[in-house]
Amino acid sequence: MKKIGIIGHIDNIKRIQLVIRQSFPKIDGYPIEINEMSQIQTTVNYLKEHINDFDGIIFTGKILYDIMNHNMHSQNPWVYIENDESQLQRSLLEARLKHNMDITQISIDSYSENTVKTIYEDFGLNSGQYLAHVSKIDIFRKTLLDDLFNFHQNNYLSHPNLIAITGISTIYKMLQSHNVPSLLLTPNVNAIKNKLYDLLEKIRIENMIISQIVVISIEIDINNEYDLISENEYSIMLQKTKITEEVYKFAQRIQAAVIETEKNYLLFTTKQIVEFETKNLRELTILSSIKYKTNNTISVGIGFGITAREAKSNAIIGKNRALKMGGNQCFVVYDRKQMERITPLDRANNSDISPLDLSYKDVSEKSGISINNIYRLKCIMDIYKKDTFTSLELSEEFRNSLRSMNRIIERLEQAGYIEVVGKKIVGKAGRPSRILKLLI
Q1: Looking at the whole model, is its pTM more than 0.90?
Q2: Do 213-342 and 355-438 show the same overall fold?
Q3: φ/ψ (deg, to 5) at 333
Q4: So where are the chain's domains?
């Protein structure tokens, strides 16, 4: 069973889930809703933390895919549902034949001017026989949704016979609520199926290379050239033993074979295992564990390669770069042109960690609330740009009963992720509602 994250507006997520249920019994489609631009960063953080939970990601549209791809580097296969020419042709024909709309005056997003021009030429219309306002709004603006809505509405106010055509469900609902004649571009079943097949093929190819060899080169840092002379042999042996113990503990976690020399270690493992252990090459705990447990530091190079020889060579390049940078460093070398630095994870000193630093998983485990519900709470905070709510407000956002919401609130309060900061009178009579501050 492949677990696929589906990212986008809930309406489009439901379309994809329906196709999965009908035609892809070996796919588990996991919804990740984004209905507002304010949810982007929360979703980026969520994906970075849980990317290994998914075999692949499918986005409900290209604009959202581009925005997310701009904010983070994908670690597993991503695809998106395209707004192709046939989709726009189908929508225009449906507007004309089914709803008797005038399709010669439109405002449109999600398509280029050339594509729109080509489609009207296919209909036998030249540039003087139709009016098409094509959005050129920067998709990376935080005000994208408001900008697109204003774009369509202003065009409609200037041309009352105009139809607004959008590929974004949130924009469509905004236009509908303001009585702007509009069409929502929706993918057909075959378009969704084809993208799911593409994603499965990408996953298959990715799985073929997860056994790519990774070599980790570790060298004990020497603060000055006289260190080994000034200390007695017994003291040096004790330090080396402590460091070796930590190296072998780390090697066991990543299922690595170890080759040991006087002050160097070579660890041989695979790409998939080392990426999981280092949270996609963002943290390397062995740097901190050796520093705090032995009072020594190490320089580390992680080398990727198709062969063990290539991976070893790249690992040594990374280790030597770490040594030149003063030690207690790690550099990842994918090839001779691509090198990245991993920052030491210095959390061993800090026993007083704020709940704000804890992951969704930690909050979920301590409170007994599902990760999905924690994520939804964070999205609500992002949308309204605040962290205080009443239980009724949260219940309405969750679309569940007040009793169910109170159970969630009670668990979070007991775990220390909600505190009561005041009371609010709701309506003309009745008991005051507690004002709850979310600490997630």
Answers
A1: no
A2: no
A3: -120, 110
A4: 2-82+189-208, 85-184, 213-342, 355-438
DSSP state of 284: B
How much is the CA Rg of the chain, to the nearest whole Å?
28
- Pull the structure tokens for residue 347: 């959390």
pLDDT at position 223: 57
Distance, CA of 4 to CA of 30 (rounded, Å): 6
Q: Could you give the CA distance from residue 43 to residue 7 in angstroms, rounded to a whole number?
A: 9
Strand partners, 304: 214
CATH class for the region spanning 213-342: alpha beta
Q: What is the 3-state secondary structure (H, E, C) of 394-434?
A: HHHHHCCCHHHHHHHHHHHHHHCCEEEEEEECCCCCCCCEE
Q: Which two tokens stand for residue 412?
A: 């979070």
How far apart CA 186 and CA 230 sit, in angstroms, is 74
Is the backbone of residue 15 left (phi > 0), alpha (psi -120 to 50) or beta?
Answer: alpha
**Cβ-proximal residues to 276 (8 Å cutoff; 6+ apart), any chain:** 52
User: In 10 A of CB 151, how many CB atoms?
Assistant: 21
Q: Does 1.10.10.10 match the CATH number of domain 355-438?
A: yes
Strand ranges across the sheet with 329-335: 257-260, 264-270, 213-220, 298-305, 329-335, 338-342
CA angle (19 as vertex; 94, 144 as ends), nearest 5:
65
* Per-residue pLDDT tens over the stretch 222-245: 754 444 444 556 666 777 888 888
Distances (CA, A) of 137 to 83, 140, 148, 344: 17, 9, 7, 40
pLDDT number for residue 351 = 37
> What is the enclosing helix (H) or strand (E) of 269?
strand 264-270
Q: Which residues does residue 186 pair with via DSSP β-bridges, in sequence order? A: none
Torsion region of 430: left, alpha or beta (phi above 0 gives left; psi -120 to 50 gives alpha)? left
